[in-house]
Design the sequence.
C-alpha cells in the first residue's frame, strides 16, 4: 500500500515538526490534565453501566472502546454517536490480514469523506474543539493544505481510540492471565509502575501501513538496513524493491 505523503505518520522533519506544532498546544501536559475530570466521569459512568448490566459483561464494547471514543470525539469535535461507523473503517485500516489493500484504501476514503463533512460544518460554525483550531490553521493562517487537514483529522481520530482501546483490553487480559490482577488490586500504589510495564510488555498491535524507510545505512541487531535509494535496486529491507513507497 502506498504511504500517504500527507500523513503525519509517514513524514520526516521539517514537515513533520511543522505539523506537530499545529497540534502541540492541545497535547500539552497541562491541557491533557484539564481533561482528567471529564475522563474520570466517563470512566465512572461506564463502570456504573457495566455494574447495572451485571456479569458477564463485554469489556471491549462496554468500556475499552467507548472510553477513548468519547474522549477523542469531544476533544476533536466529532459526534461520539458515529462511533460504529468510524470504528468499522478504523479496524479495516489497521487490519493486516482481514482486508485487501483496496479495501484499506476504500476505508481511508470513507473516513476522509466523514472528516471532510465535519470540517465543512466547523467552517460554517466554528467551535472551541481541535478540529476548529485546525480549520483556522488552514483557512486563516495557511499552515495546512486541505488534504493535510483532512488527513490529520483522520489520523487523530483513528490513533486516538484504537490504540487505547486495544491497550486497555490487552492489559486487563494480561493481568488476568498472569494472575497479577489480584496483586495489583491489593496494591493500588503500584498502578503507575504497572502501567509503564504493561505499555512495554504488551504489543500495541501489528497494523500495516506504517512503513519505515531508512534515510541512511544503519545497523539494527546486527543487520544492515540500507538507506533508501542507495543505488543497488534494493530497498531498506535488503529485498529487491517491488513497490514504490
Ligand atoms: C495507549 C495508548 C497509545 C499508545 C500505546 C500509542 C502508541 C503510539 C506509537 C507507538 C506511535 C508511533 C508510531 C510510529 O511512528 O512508528 C504513536 C503515534 C501517534 N499517536 Fe499514539 N498511542 C496511544 C494513544 C494515542 C492517542 C490517545 C492519540 C490521540 C489523541 C494518539 C495519536 C497519535 C499520533 C497523532 C501519532 C503520530 C505522531 C507523529 O508521527 O508525530 N495516540 N502512538
Sequence:
Amino acid at each position: 500500500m502506498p504511504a500517504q505523503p500527507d500523513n503525519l505518520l509517514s513524514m520526516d522533519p521539517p514537515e513533520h515538526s511543522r505539523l506537530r506544532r499545529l497540534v502541540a498546544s492541545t497535547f500539552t501536559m497541562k491541557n491533557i490534565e484539564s481533561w482528567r475530570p471529564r475522563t474520570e466521569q466517563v470512566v465512572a459512568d461506564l463502570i456504573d453501566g457495566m455494574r447495572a448490566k451485571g456479569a458477564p459483561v463485554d469489556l471491549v464494547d462496554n468500556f475499552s472502546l467507548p472510553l477513548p471514543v468519547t474522549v477523542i470525539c469531544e476533544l476533536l469535535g466529532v459526534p461520539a454517536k458515529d462511533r460504529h461507523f468510524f470504528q468499522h473503517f478504523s479496524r479495516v485500516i489497521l487490519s493486516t490480514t482481514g482486508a485487501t489493500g483496496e479495501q484499506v484504501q476504500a476505508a481511508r476514503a470513507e473516513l476522509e469523506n466523514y472528516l471532510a463533512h465535519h470540517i465543512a460544518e466547523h467552517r460554517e460554525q466554528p467551535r472551541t474543539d481541535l478540529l476548529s483550531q485546525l480549520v483556522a490553521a488552514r483557512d486563516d493562517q495557511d499552515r495546512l493544505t486541505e488534504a493535510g487537514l483532512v488527513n490529520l483529522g483522520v489520523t487523530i481520530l483513528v490513533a486516538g481510540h484504537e490504540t487505547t482501546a486495544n491497550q486497555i483490553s490487552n492489559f486487563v487480559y494480561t493481568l488476568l492471565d498472569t494472575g497479577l490482577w489480584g496483586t495489583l488490586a491489593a496494591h493500588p500504589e503500584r498502578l503507575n509502575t504497572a502501567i509503564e510495564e504493561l505499555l512495554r510488555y504488551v504489543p500495541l498491535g501489528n497494523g500495516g501501513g506504517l512503513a519505515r524507510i531508512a534515510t541512511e545505512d544503519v545497523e539494527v541487531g546486527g543487520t544492515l538496513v540500507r538507506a533508501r535509494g542507495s543505488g543497488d535496486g534494493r530497498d531498506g529491507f535488503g529485498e529487491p524493491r517491488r513497490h514504490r513507497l
